[in-house]
Structure formats: C-alpha cells, structure tokens
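OP here, attaching both records as promised.
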Amino acid sequence: MEADGTLEATAPLFSASMEIPYDLRFMAFALTWTAGLCGLAGSDRSEADALRLASEETLTFLIGSYPDAETWEQLRVEFSLQAGGLVEIAMTNAGPPVHLSRIPRYNPQEPSESEMDGLWYFLARNAVDDLTFTNLGWDGWRAVIQKRLAGACFEPKPSAKALDPLPEGKLVFATRRATPEDAAHLVDLIYDTYRYTYPAKHFYHEPMLRQALQEGGIVSLVVEADGAIVGNVSFMLSSQTPRCAYTGSLMIKRAFRQSRAIIHLLKEIEKVISSGSLNADLCYAEMVTTHTGSQKAGAKTGYVPLALLPSLYPMVDFRGMKTASIDRESQLLVIRMIAPPQIPVLYLPVRHHAVMAPLLAQAGVPCRLSAEEAPPERLPTTLTTKEDLDDGNACITTTRLGQDYALRLRKRIYAVKAKGIQTVVVLIPAWRPIPPGLEDEMANMQATFTGVRPISAHEWYLVYVALSGPVNFELIRLSDPLAVDLKDHCERLFDELVAEAPE
C-alpha cells in the first residue's frame, strides 16, 4: 500500500519512543528495544520476528539514505499497541524525501539484478499487514509499520485511584492559615491538581513559596482532613497594586472533591475577607472558563464578573476532569469589593454601557456611567508593562494618558508581540473622561473592549485585549448569566474587528 494512512486511529493501550542517530551501529539497540515491547504486547515468536524484520529493513533504508546527516539529528522510533492487538511502529525521518515510485518492485518469481534495491521494501512490506510512508512537510517523513497480533495479552495498568476518603461522619475538617513549613505540602497539592501546568510558577518551587509565605507576599488558607492538607486558596499581594489582593490557587485534593472540604475552605475565605485582615480594598481572581466549577465556588463567596480575558494562558491540565481541547485558556475576571467603591462616575464608550451597567450593579458599584470625552493631558503618556513570556501574555497599564497615548501604546504592543507575546491586555483609566476616538484608536491596534478592572476603591480601568490569534467563544463556559451577556458582547466586537468590507 502506498497511500498515506493507517489501518486504525485509536488511543493506544501503551506507547513508548526512543531516538537514535543516523548511524547503523545504533540500530541493534532500537531493534532489541522493539523486540522487548513486542513481547510485552503479547506477540508470539513469529509475530515478533516479522516486526523485527520490517523494522530492520526500514531502518536500514532510512539511515542508509541519509549518509550526510548532522551529528545532532535524530531518527525517532515510536512503538504503540492499539486496541484490538494492532502494533504500530512509526519512524519519523528528517532525511531525504521517500519516493516509493522510484523503489524497484522486486519480483521473487523472476528476480533481476536491477530490482535488488527494492528487496528491502518487498521483505518489510510482506512481513507485516501494512507499511506506509507519509509526507509531513517541514517535519520530514514518517514510516509506519502495522501488524495485528493474534493473541495480544497486554492489559493497561488501572489508573491509580486517589485514596478513598473516610465516610463523611468520620472525617474531621479544620481550616487554618498556612505557615512556611507547609510549602512542600502545597507544592504536592498543586501537582495533584494541575500537574505542571499551573501559571503561578512559584507554587512549584518550595524555597520560593516558603519565602513568600514567610514574608507575607502570599497568604494561604488550607483545609485539613484528619491533619493532612487537602485544600488551599491563596491571596497574593503586590507592591504595584497594594490595595488589590489576587485570589488564586483554589484547589481541593482529587480524593476530596466530593467531600465537604470545599465548603470549609469557602467559609474560611469569607471569614478572612470580612475580617479586613488583608488590608485591601478588593480581591480579584481570574477564573478558568473550560469548566464552571471554580466560577460557582467564587460566586458563593461574593466574587462577581467584570471582564473577560480571552486566550490569556496556555491550557492547564485539570487532573481528573475532562475539559475542552484548546491551546490557550480564556479567563473570567471576577472581583469582591471589601472597601466601598470611591468612583462616582465611570467613563467608557456608550456602546458598552448596556452590558456593563448590570455587571457593575451586581458588584455593588453605585457609579454613574458616562461617555463624556475630553482631550488627554498635554503631558507625555506613561506606561508600565508586565510581561510573562512563559505564559505568552502581557499587561500594559497607562498610568498617565497623554496626547501621544495612541502612538506609545501602538509601539509598546508591537514591542511585546515581537517577543512572542500572544495576548496583550491594555488598561485605560476609567476615572476621567475618555479621549476622543478611543474605540477607533484601539481597533487600529487590533484591541477590543472586554470589561473593566479595579485596582483600588478609586482606581478603575477599561480593559482592552489585543490578540495574535483567533478565539473560539463557543468553548468559553460561564455560569453567570451577566457574564454570558458580556461574552456575547465581546464576540460581536471581535467579529467586527476581523470583518472585511464587501468587495
């Protein structure tokens, strides 16, 4: 068979891979490794010999076709056992193109000297059920060998179930403030929840987390079950926004997600916020939108939505939870006011009043909305920029809006995107009249309005987001009806931004 494709495309029962240089001296190791995996899959002697023959002939051809390979180049061999006993051995090759039409067709009935260069393909192809070569474009070529085993006997190892908790009546929950000595337990908990995909990197480094807990940069609340930490939430304080506490790392150990641990933790959150011990005007959080669980938990403690942040982070891995398969995660910005808002008038373009008025009312912000315009100050614009190259996002805050704001913002957005930043959040002061033509200027920067964000009782910002890629709004799941209205509003704005005029 010469067409691209394989017999089946199913999730493997197991898979493994290795890489070797383009050197025939390493081939014996690859063949021995493949033979061992064949035995693990349940092949008999004849099936293992057939797969070894096909692998040996194909590897010999691929390595021999690329004598001038660089020493750093590797040939990748992947072994997998699919459902139904189908063994698949794939070899990803960065060597020259494979032209099957140029391989002589060896005829065993009437062999000739001119056909001997095709003997390897004849032997490999007839030893197994299928041998295909797929053109991967810039990624080279892939040879795929397939053979179905008659008596495959491999049974996947059952996933290790989290420790079943004791019956609710016997569990003793307690909440307390975390100490620096809890840092190692919190690192384990973050891994149990997200593996290595949680955006806050310090939660994976015990010494860094220990220091933050000790110095008060992070205030963590933990819930324990019979003395063991099973849940956490943290309040992070920043010198840049001292009146605004970021709430994050809300997580419950997988074994206790159906217990009352989350209820105890939510009660402790309410207690800490109500006590005023955080010395902040408000708390805010960025809730994931691939599921609504954390949004509902936040709503129980008074957090309400004010902005949507599309495509803000790389996709996180929620262990034990099926979520949409996307590259980047959109976030819902939610707040909980602690001090009374001190912003009698909030200025924003009139087209956003209808969607923002009920959101602000729900947040307990009794301000008047105004679309009044006024020229910016006759002073240079000042900006602060916070970049996260790992997460591919940046936040640009206009601390002073001058007459050159559009030019300064355009250059700053271009500068951060040139570093590989995919999502740029721009904050525009909302406590003073908006500059004329703000919407058009932001559209010229490929930025659209997505909500408002406070950083203190009297400092509120309009939120604009400039993206480098598309957003699938259908995959953004929201539990608050007003947040759904905001999402629909943002989607219309994004559609307008990319819409082309009819020819």
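Record two, same layout:
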Amino acid sequence: MNIIKQSLTAISLLFLLSCGFSPILKNVTFENIKISNIKYSGPNNLVYYLRSNLNIPTSRGAIDAYEVRIKIKESASSTTKDTAGITTEEKVTINVSFDILDKNKEVIGMDNLSGSRNVSVTNNIITDSENKRIEKENIITNLIQQLSFSIRAKIASSQQ
C-alpha cells in the first residue's frame, strides 16, 4: 500500500512538472508594494478590531501607491430551534470585501472573503451578546491573514 502511494505521488509530480505549471507569485517581493490609504466601512466595533489587527503598512507620501477600500458586513441567522420554535443556535457570518485602486483611482483588483461560526443562544442577553462579540473577533482574526495576503497578491499580480 505504501509503495502504491509513493508511486502515485511520483507520477503526479511528473505530471505537474511537465504541464508547464509555475506559481504566479514565485519571484514576487511584497516589500515593493506601497499602499497610501486604507478606508474602512461597516459596523464600528468590527472596523475598529480589523483596523487594530490588520498589519499592512501605509506610506502616505508615495507617488505610485495604491488605495484599499475595505467593507465589512455582519449577519446572523437561526440554525437550530427547539420544539417551541425558540432559536437555540445562530450562525454568525462576517463578510469582508475590498477594492484596490491605483494612482488613477481605477479598480485593479477586488475580492470577497467570509467566515462564519455557530453560537449558542440562551435566555441571558448579556452572555449571548458577549459570546457573539468574541466569535465575531475570532472570525475577523481568521480573515486577517487571508485579507492581507489577498491584497498583496492582487497588487503583485497587477504589476506583472
């Protein structure tokens, strides 16, 4: 069984090498990417958390710099109800979309990212709102790395 896996791996590597595949971002350095401004829109608490944790440096005076516009949306939907029809679990979803504009204010790239989590709902409003806040922050934390890479990759691919 182990020999079969090794031979299948070797064959698949041969196919990949012979098909002409080459990674797009193989020789790209992200140090040359300059962003002049990042504009955020959406609920204040989510914007604040994203702005505090997104680690993309901005250079205000750069001539060839890009502008990024990030929009955050949140939604919640009932996923589980008890026999009385009362919601016992909600699905909290965060959508992050962004546009990248060049120095001429033309859109050169855009993308949408989303994440969701299930949150149990009880009769205690304070506990429920705190649990939702924590889960929203966890979702944004997971999306930050994807967002940072996606922004840089879109800019890098537009430069090539």
